[in-house]
Amino acid sequence: xxxxxxxxxxxxxxxxxxxxxxxxxxxxxxxxxxxxxxxxxxxxxxxxxxxxxxxxxxxxxxxxxxxxxxxxxxxxxxxxxxxxxxxxxxxxxxxxxxxxxxxxxxxxxxxxxxxxxxxxxxxxxxxxxxxxxxxxxxxxxxxxxxxxxxxxxxxxxxxxxxxxxxxxxxxxxxxxxxxxxxxxxxxxxxxxxxxxxxxxxxxxxxxxxxxxxxxxxxxxxxxxxxxxxxxxxxxxxxxxxxxxxxxxxxxxxxxxxxxxxxxxxxxxxxxxxxxxxxxxxxxxxxxxxxxxxxxxxxx
Amino acid sequence: xxxxxxxxxxxxxxxxxxxxxxxxxxxxxxxxxxxxxxxxxxxxxxxxxxxxxxxxxxxxxxxxxxxxxxxxxxxxxxxxxxxxxxxxxxxxxxxxxxxxxxxxxxxxxxxxxxxxxxxxxxxxxxxxxxxxxxxxxxxxxxxxxxxxxxxxxxxxxxxxxxxxxxxxxxxxxxxxxxxxxxxxxxxxxxxxxxxxxxxxxxxxxxxxxxxxxxxxxxxxxxxxxxxxxxxxxxxxxxxxxxxxxxxxxxxxxx
Amino acid sequence: xxxxxxxxxxxxxxxxxxxxxxxxxxxxxxxxxxxxxxxxxxxxxxxxxxxxxxxxxxxxxxxxxxxxxxxxxxxxxxxxxxxxxxxxxxxxxxxxxxxxxxxxxxxxxxxxxxxxxxxxxxxxxxxxxxxxxxxxxxxxxxxxxxxxxxxxxxxxxxxxxxxxxxxxxxxxxxxxxxxxxxxxxxxxxxxxxxxxxxxxxxxxxxxxxxxxxxxxxxxxxxxxxxxxxxxxxxxxxxxxxxxxxxxxxxxxxxxxxxxxxxxxxxxxxxxxxxxxxxxxxxxxxxxxxxxxxxxxxxxxxxxxxxx
Lengths: 299, 254, 307
Prior knowledge:
A: alpha+beta; 7 strands; elongated; C: 11 helices
């Protein structure tokens, strides 16, 4: 009898101890969570690793903290990005606008000759056109980048489409005295894509080449490891690795001061369209040549 | 504290030296136990007289030299090695009190030591009895004496482990720890044989844990004897642990 | 005002009659990558060891996350991950077990953090391989994984580039920048080579012979490195007196070939040239120029050597 009683007492004592310990651990966890949301500490919850359930609870709390930290960081980043975007946008719009205002002031003066007036007007028109294109691109990019912009993917013959777009740019190549070295395979390459989006990507990439290329230009289309790959290669002596890394960023221009030569948003739009088609658009620098590759999965 | 204990236990479970030592201790003791039980090696000791023939191999396991050899190797590789490979840095940096770190290390070291020197032989003895019917017990009532002896032995062994830990902390090297503690064990064995020692040394030795360690298994013990043994053991344990804790607290970790 | 993560006030350490740290007032703020620069033996490690509780200061205060009391500091250290001198691992354990030890040690709930941290440093595929068989680079990465386990808010790296090949240094630099940018981790990193830190740090502290000579931001350092006046005249010593007496600009250096580098007044070339001409000196050359980092560091440290 005495053994049974003492065993029961001992057992009760152990349970009591355990209860006290659990309560203490709960308080510790609660304090830690409180300190976290009050912003006093960014530390995750740590516990005395004795009870599996408490460990699971603390683990879940930490997952939640992870989520909170992540979304907070995302919010701050998109905040900074947005502010940066607005700043860049206003910069991009201000330059042509300032020019337009300047020329309209000149036009307002009495002593303008007819020839001068014509010249100013044509400059104003050209600048306004550029402004118009830019605004259009802003709109297009924001549209393409929004989550509910979906493309309809269907089998597209890339070769034919590329030839078609290239022909359209013939005059501009001649004007810039560029003779692209074309290396386009005759084998019909069919990729899963959206034809109008592919056309837009081609236009933007070729437009970029025409605007920036100095010296040699090579365009090749081939099949590589089951993918359709299109490579644009042109000399780009004054681009750095860092510039290439940011090539597809919305508001990056290799040289801010030369705003007349700015890329525009063409590359960003092309990048977004390619991602929407499950394709890839990458850029690299090799021996002073800029190489832009686009790849589609073959259908 | 719980986390520190779990850490040390995890380290112990992953410590190869410890498991090797356990294996060696078990095999060596099992061999000796068999030899003694089958009477190949004649043992004439108090267990025979007390009617606990089964335990007649136990004095081997409780001989200072035997267990100090195991314990010093264990302490050397479990405590001093932390300093040698530098992992103690991570433990100290982890936001735990140094006294807690010290205590956790000590508790797990004691646990390992008890497994090595007490649990192993007892398991071999009881296992041998249950499985193969090795040994016999003519007078089971003498088990009370065994329990008392074991209790006192454990307390003194705890003090010894604390001392080993202090040595390991100061030496910071497993080799040095082992050499120093083996020398100490040798000195005790010699002292025990040479008794009475000249002058004050004898009194010093008589009130040390080493003497009481060996004396734990005395057949007849009066109450004052027990109190003396207990107070020497616990007193030494507390003093050595206090010193060890202080040494660890003051330590600059390289 | 940004939140301070680590502050030391009058931190002093003496051993065996030598002063290893002399009243160091260091401030690391949230989000910094703090480059702690000094020659070998300047006191970098000593300071980091005091911060991480490996050593004790002779006098002065360490404050981590605003906690400077004994108990508060111990709690605050749970928010710090560090590698001091070299990474310390259990050689007989696998990468996972090494992290498990530290998970238990820090009381981090759930084993998920181990796989996550291993993936972060690129060691997820080491399997049953024991740490002793790791290459130096892998050991370094495992050390980093240990320091990063449980998402600390302050990461302390003591000479992390020691023994790494150039590729490893670049990799480490990228990781440090990524941790800082993506996880908002505050990082204190020491080195004896300024240029190594220059690619990543946002703030610098220069320590020499136990004294913190200067704390400056990346921008300030660039400014300092960029801007000085290079002056060549027919009589450098007279020019030196003009600089000191008339212009009150003692902040200059005379190079072996007699060229003077003036570290102040660089924006006021007119005043300098007028003062020099007025004293009858013939100016052969006077132009703003830039110092490279290493020579800036040598100058700061060297200047202290002579006074």
